[in-house]
Automatic annotation (TrEMBL), chains A, B, C, D, E:
Cited InterPro entries: Flag_MotA_CS (IPR000540), MotA-like (IPR047055), MotA_ExbB_proton_chnl (IPR002898)
Gene Ontology terms: biological process: bacterial-type flagellum-dependent swarming motility; chemotaxis
Primary gene name: motA1
Domain of life: Bacteria
Transmembrane segments: 7-30, 36-59, 144-169, 181-200
The protein's name in its UniProt record: MotA1
Domain (MotA/TolQ/ExbB proton channel) ranges: 102-217
The entry's keywords: Cell membrane, Flagellar rotation, Membrane, Transmembrane, Transmembrane helix, Transport
Family listed: Belongs to the MotA family.
UniProt membrane topology term: Multi-pass membrane protein
Localization annotation: Cell membrane
GO cellular component: plasma membrane
Length: 253, 253, 253, 253, 253
């Protein structure tokens, strides 16, 4: 569960509501046509911009931000070192039994190829291509949010323009000018809040998540290549530990 | 037929119309000079910015978005594996009969060179250059839309400035100020809607389409090189299957 | 003669004029101080931003857009194939007579080096450096226009600010407020039209032109290297034909 | 202690305060709801955009700007030359005693590997990966500030929109329009000052700091590789001195 | 002396002054608090963004734009060809006497290493690193101006917001609204002029200057490597002449 995102969204909406309530009731900021033009316009533009399958994947992608659970880098390295030790002692074939227990599909596939005696170069090529593909899939996810982050304010402005034009065309009753203009501006408000409290931060978080996953895949990639090449487990551990970062194990370096 | 684009455009226009109709009639948002300056100005600027042939290709490029039909990655791989098997059994010459039946010009040309005994390096060089050229042609397509997406709001603003200047120069009759300003703002509205509901999303979709086509060409490229080199069909399949992605065949990995 | 650019500029100005005339006379949109601050400011800023020689080259660069005449890719390839055939039959020295008739300085220089027996690596190095230099010169051209495209609206706004400050400081006679503000806004109008109808599209076109010229130079480069290496003319033609693109010779691929 | 940053922040706030005081009291520019929406919204959006650990590191990262103390490039080079001389005379093992005294963890680890007889290629790989990781950690720091620099003005505008809508909905008492609008604009003021006097400059400084640290790590990297390879200390010094820059030792070059 | 920059600044200020004088006196556009907030705020933000030493170097960097004097490319090549000829006839040691007369530190250092018999690879490595460092120093210079070009309009807006808030809070006397608002807008005017007539063009010019210097350093680099390798002076001249460009020696190519 990604606590930061949930705290962020809840507190963000909270700050906006409190700010509103200090000056007026909430009702002033609810306007159905405004919601319709911003949400509808953003969705429509996004559907034109992306294939249907990518667009529909946004629910899955969003869930991922909140339910995201990534294996710890330490555990991945420990697991690879263990496999490496086993392979060193019992030969590459001895790790076959571990494959079934490996929950990570990327690692399982790589180990299977290792056991099958596929050449290091071919294993590396397949693993790297797989990584590149996952990276591209992630990119679709965050560029989708990023596009929505630029469409939302644009349709907010479109809605405000509609409201202003309608108000300006009928200035007969001066007492209605203020409220009408207020309603017109709410659409810009919606677009801006949606973009800055949801779409843009989500795009940034997804990009960060992608980097973390790719780092883990890189560790697995280097580990399996090292195992396939019969490198000493200790040297492999030394090389992979670099990925733990200054924060994770400051005493080690 | 690209359903998402059609749903997007129809629903986008729908949302805007409904939003307008909730506040006034549609007539308020129709103004011929505004259409003229935005559409005319955008077309004029685009003609200056691109060669005539590129500019005229926009109809073809647009059709492509709506009629786009790309061969499935699975089918391409299956086809390549089949050819590879045939070549393995009957020799490279045995695939000559397939070339005539290959609808894809890129694959046909590559296979022809393979049958003709052109060296792998030369085949690879020609295929890669071809890919780079197609990529460049695609780029012209989406940068054209992208340019229009930035010209449209600019000419929207130019039109609004013209309207405002004309209104400000004649403030004699206060009752006409509102309607005149309304008309002036419609031009900005046109530019913004055209850019955000059409030009910018179309540019994004074309870029995505291009990536898909290039991926397919890359698969064909790798497949033909593999066939030319006499690699085992099973290994080739393993390598190409990576391109199917997590979504397409989750059970496989 | 680049028809698209001329049609674009003429029709763009036409659309703006017609839009203006539908609402008022043209005289309303003529204001000398506004022209002065936008044109003068843009030129001044450009002179600070670029060396004098680059700035003065803008006339030449602009002429190039309108008088641009590039050799057809087909003709370049046909010519190279012919030379290749000649060299194959009569030896490298036999092409010396063609050099004097070669109008293209880049090709002539490359052939001269070939005849002189300069090593392939040295010819390639010199030709590539030459290409990089031409690319850089082109870049100066379009970045100059691009800079002007961002300075013009900025000085448009500066002019509008001047007008507004002067108007606001003297609000004594309310009847002059409108006309004064109209005049102030004309400066923004000038900056925006100049940028979007001239500077920005010209920068885009020059960038496209540069790409075309560089493609032709690349073809010549690859052709001469192929001739120098004694590659078979037929293979060379196959390789160079890739540059013709899908549009030029669809039947061939 | 980073004097420039402290002078910058203090004088920046000073200039703003003096400008305000020349026109009114400070009280006019204090509004709690405005502070809440800008600060709160920016923090909320940043928490959604980054993992909790990264977000919490901002205090540490900020301290770093003010307390930043980097080892002088000259001292690093002198130290490496000394170690190189020692290793040349007494062999690689003779430098083991220095490792305990090396405060820099990166250098210590590298020397330890050298003494342990790890192959140059492996040392280089580990050191480069370490550098890449540190670079990524730094990047998180300055992209965090950079994101806050774009969220702050956005929430400033959101707050202003809230204020304007509330004001426009209640235009009954004309005498309150001015003050209410003043309050609404203060939120934009807060967002703009926070972004331009704090977040954006801090992001730039952190990026610069990162470059300095990476340069020092590069020097250590090259030095240790040179020592491991047994290169002459004098040549190593020549190579590393290049990093001192024109400003630091103009007479030397 | 860089004439273009001086003409640009003088004429730019001239155009602005004349435009102002056509509408009012200059006094209307002088306001000390506005100057203070724009200049002060820009300086403060720049001090936070850059180390003190970089910030203080701005005077030197600015002088460089106006006093800039770069050695002609033709002279550099002629000089290198002469040295190459000497080295060819009298051996590498014969050029030692020239080193003392070489005003260019970069060339002198490179020749000294050549005479000292340093290996080509090491000379190349040192020269390239030196070039990369100079490039980085130049980059600091123009990114400093570029940052100021974005801070100035931002603080212009901050100042305008201050003025507007103060005006809106005291609308008692309608006759002062105009003048007060005029004063508020002057700050935006200052920020915009400073950015577009000074900071941004200066950043562009410095970037161009950097490219020119780096080109000259590249020529020296290639020349010295050619001399060290004992390449024929004529071939070296051919290779270096490419850098002269189409404009400099059109007849040659």
């Amino acid at each position: 569960m990604d606590l930061a995102s949930i705290i962020g969204i809840v507190s963000g909406i909270g700050f906006i509501c409190v700010t509103i309530l200090l000056g007026s009731g909430m009702g002033l900021f609810w306007n159905l046509p405004s919601v319709m033009i911003v949400v509808g316009g953003t969705i429509a533009a996004t559907m034109i911009a992306y294939p249907l399958s990518d667009f529909l994947s946004i629910v899955k992608v969003t869930m991922k931000v909140f339910l995201f659970k990534i294996e710890k880098t330490e555990d991945i390295i420990a697991n690879l070192v263990e496999i490496s030790n086993k392979a060193r002692k019992g030969g590459l074939l001895s790790i076959e039994s571990d494959i079934a227990n490996t929950p990570d599909a990327y690692l399982a596939k790589a180990l299977q190829m290792t056991v099958d005696g596929v050449k290091t170069g071919d294993i590396a090529a397949i693993m790297q291509k797989k990584m590149a593909l996952i990276k591209k899939e992630h990119k679709t996810g965050y560029s989708l949010y990023s596009s929505m982050g630029s469409f939302a304010p644009a349709f907010g402005m479109v809605g405000t323009l509609i409201g202003l034009v309608q108000m300006l065309a009928n200035l007969d009753d001066p007492s209605t000018i203020g409220p009408k203009m207020a309603v017109a501006m709410i659409t810009t408000f919606y677009g801006s809040v949606m973009a800055n409290l949801f779409f843009i931060p989500m795009a940034t978080k997804l990009e960060g998540r992608s980097a973390e996953e790719i780092t883990n895949m890189t560790i697995i990639y280097e580990g399996v290549v090292s195992i396939r090449e019969g490198e000493h487990p200790r040297l492999m551990e030394d090389k992979l530990n670099v990925y733990l970062g200054a924060g994770a194990k400051p005493k080690e370096e």
